[in-house]
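Support case: cobalt (II) ion complex. Customer-provided input:
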Amino acid sequence: MVDFAARLASAAQASRMDICTIGFPAMAAEPRRVEHQQTDKGYVPVYTTDVVEQPWSSYTSDDHATWATLFHRQREILKGRASREFIDNQERLGMSADAIPRYEELNTVLASATGWQLVGVEGLLPELTFFDHLANRRFPVTWWIRRPDQIDYIAEPDLFHDLFGHVPLLLNPVFADYMQAYGQGGVKAHGISAEALVNLTRLYWYTVEFGLIREADGLRIYGSGIVSSKGESIHCLESPAPNRIGFDLERIMRTRYRIDTFQKTYFVIDSYEQLIEATLPDFTPLYERLAGQASIPAGDVLDSDRVFHRGTGEGWSGEGDV
Ligand code: PHE
Ligand code: CO
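Agent response - structure generated as follows:
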């Protein structure tokens, strides 16, 4: 199981499911906890657009304890597994197990490092709203944390995933620029076609959420969906099941992915510079070339792939790529 089914899964879900966006009274006094709904049609994501103040004093001792448990556990697991950049920057941010961090304090560090700012949100954002935040160097962070019974699995991003997972790399100047460029590219793709948006979403998925990087001592994790998940942090590097393949922009944009299980394939970058360099060119001709091309199943290996590890595929279920 993955730790969360994620914000960017929404592009794929939008085509299959009813979407519900809730509106609000002009002044929401207390931020709400907006989660997906389970209906007779299955999982229905719920979207919200408000930016809210982090209601820090409303966190209960259970909330702080959940943060502490997850923080300790992941920091331990990530030793020797996470990218140097992730660990070092998380330390620079001063996050600790003691209490849920205050966005305001993290924002001071972010402001002077790369100019990024965290903004509180109530749950999933509609795509365009999400892109607009990124394009302006604002990173939306869910204000609420999972309940104790959701420690090992939650279907959507919560405060732990967003803060622990995404914020450290926003201190890295190259990655910070990549995230902003992604937001700008998202606004553009949104205006091109639904298919372009699916292509772009796959890039986010296989880099920002589930990316691996090749460092001097071996493969390391930088994807937020991995670092916030106990099971996947181990699986992505140590399990013989998944493929580990060299980063290839066009290949990634054609590759389907899993939102309900560990990934079948991880893509490995050589450096953060590689990400920016590969994604700098205008994607418009690329979207045109990809239009109508068949997508690649999540677990496939192609002859053209630079294979670090060919997955055994053990434990894989056939259906469920999106
Ligand atoms: N260069 C991309 C475009 O023209 C924008 C982009 C940058 C997308 C970085 C993703 C990541 O659409
Ligand atoms: Co995420």
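The first strand starts at residue 20 and ends at 21.

Case will auto-close in a few days if no follow-up is received.
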